[in-house]
Design a protein that fits this description.
The protein is an alpha+beta fold and 183 residues long. The chain has a single domain, classed as Galactose-binding domain-like (Jelly Rolls, Sandwich). It contains two helices and ten strands. The strands form two sheets. Strands 1, 2, 3, 4, 5, 6, 7 and 10 form an eight-stranded antiparallel sheet that branches. The chain has a two-stranded antiparallel ribbon with strand order 8-9. A hairpin with a 2-residue loop joins β5 and β6. The protein is elongated. It starts with a helix and ends in a 10-residue tail after the last strand.
Length: 183
């Protein structure tokens, strides 16, 4: 009997503690105010999508041309600097990619992802970044997951010769909204 009472007290305490813990409340998706590689990537509809596209850069030197051959990308661009704290990407079979932000005219890597098996990927930046453009850079070819230490194969991303991936949603959020009791 005492064992059951102890379990009930423990369970009640855990329930009360979890109710007291505040979850992070993110503001609205600010990606809907940005220009995207394709408008279907940031229209707020998970059922529409668009393919990543070849990287287009202003300069045409050899290094940039080699980059263009190796990667496709999806971008979000704002007219004025915007602070980003969280990014959500919804895409099927997007295993390998890099999230980058344009900071002071240079692309800064925010996060590299390998072996992603989820259709929905979310990343909260350790420190929010202020930028006018973010992008997901996707390699056209990559080594698949290793099983037992052996490389399975080097394949084109998604099995498509162009390496393009369909992204259903590319979302960005600003810093969390403070709760009323925190202000």
């Amino acid at each position: 009997m005492q064992r059951w009472i102890g379990r009930i007290v423990l369970f009640s305490t855990l329930v009360m503690l979890s109710a007291c813990m505040s979850s992070v409340e993110w503001g609205p998706n600010i990606a809907v105010n940005a220009r995207a590689t394709n408008d279907r990537m940031n229209d707020g509809n998970d059922y529409t999508g668009a393919d990543s596209q070849a990287m287009l850069e202003e300069a045409r030197d050899l290094k940039i041309l080699e980059e263009m051959d190796k990667y496709t990308q999806a971008t979000l661009t704002w007219n004025r600097p915007t602070t980003i704290a969280r990014v959500v990407i919804r895409a099927k079979e997007l295993e390998v990619f890099t999230l980058e932000a344009l900071v002071d005219g240079e692309w800064k890597t925010l996060h590299e992802t390998k072996n992603n098996l989820k259709d929905s990927w979310a990343y909260t930046l350790p420190d929010p970044v202020t930028t006018t453009e973010i992008r997901v850079r996707i390699p056209r070819k990559y080594d698949t997951r290793r099983v037992g230490g052996a490389k399975r194969r080097n394949r084109v991303e998604g099995g498509m010769p162009s390496g393009e991936k369909t992204i259903y949603e590319f979302e960005a959020y600003g810093p969390p909204i403070p709760k009323e009791d925190e202000q």
